[in-house]
Amino acid sequence: MLQEYRIQLPDSEATDQLAAVLATCLPRQLCVWLEGELGSGKTHLVRGLLRALGCRGAVRSPTYTLLETYDVDAPQTVRAGVRAPSTGARQKLEAESGLVVYHFDLYRLASPEEWAEAGFDDLPDPAVRLIEWPQRGGAATPPADLRVGLAVAGRGRSATVIACSRIGGETCQTLGSALQAQPAGSALHWVSVC
Questions:
Q1: Strand-pair partners of 132
Q2: SS3 147
Q3: Would you state the pLDDT for residue 97?
Q4: For residue 5, which phi and psi values (nearest 5 degrees)?
């Protein structure tokens, strides 16, 4: 069953808020394709996600290096809880500790063969793979569990999150619960699309 969320991001703070919510939904193994034109906010979303996961050092764009790796050790607690399915009571979500995050930017990839030549197929698992410009890797790019499309929308941005696999669907379900738990007045405005 296709799961899709469309989220309005009126400003950079809303993008950071979406990143923080998404950070709490990540399993230890996931491939996320980040799609959108230049300047649509892909790297901003990744920076917000890594900050929410506890990365305190520099979060560099891998535009020239193609890959940056982050080891995230500290679990993070969501500011807003979600409702437990069985009781309806509010509970806190925690991001998994010990996550390895690979942030790829394939914009400068000259050919799909460079993916294998760079040794990207040999990176250890489990890991969360965040891939900007995945289409540049062609068939070498790992299939997406989630696709996150970002676009400029007026003065802000919009995001579309689509599940593409079983684990992507489970992640989307968790994201839906976390979005529903956002407090009234939240900057995140979203709809579920079936």
A1: 34, 105
A2: strand
A3: 53
A4: -125, 135
CA distances in angstroms from 52 to 21, 25, 48, listed in the order given: 8, 11, 6
Query: pLDDT tens-digit profile of 57-91?
Result: 778 787 778 899 998 864 443 333 333 333 443 33
Q: What CATH number should be reported for the domain holding residue 24? A: 3.40.50.300
The pTM assigned to this predicted structure is 0.84
| Domain span holding position 103 | 4-193
Q: Which residues contact 129 (CB under 8 A, 6 or more apart)?
A: 30, 31, 32, 102, 104, 142
Q: How far apart are CA 53 and CA 194, in angstroms?
A: 29
Residue of 45, 100, 83 lying closest to 181 (CA atoms):
83
Q: 142: which 2 tokens?
A: 């790992």
Helix (H) or strand (E) holding 41: none
Burial of 71 (0-12, 13-18, 19+ CB in 10 A): exposed
Region 162-167: mean pLDDT is: 95
Question: Cα-flanking dihedrals φ and ψ of residue 115, to 5°?
Answer: -60, -55
Count: domains in the chain: 1
Q: Is 53 helix (H, G, I), strand (E, B) or coil?
A: coil
Instruction: Tell me phi and psi for residue 18, to 5 degrees.
Output: -60, -45
- The residue count for the chain: 194
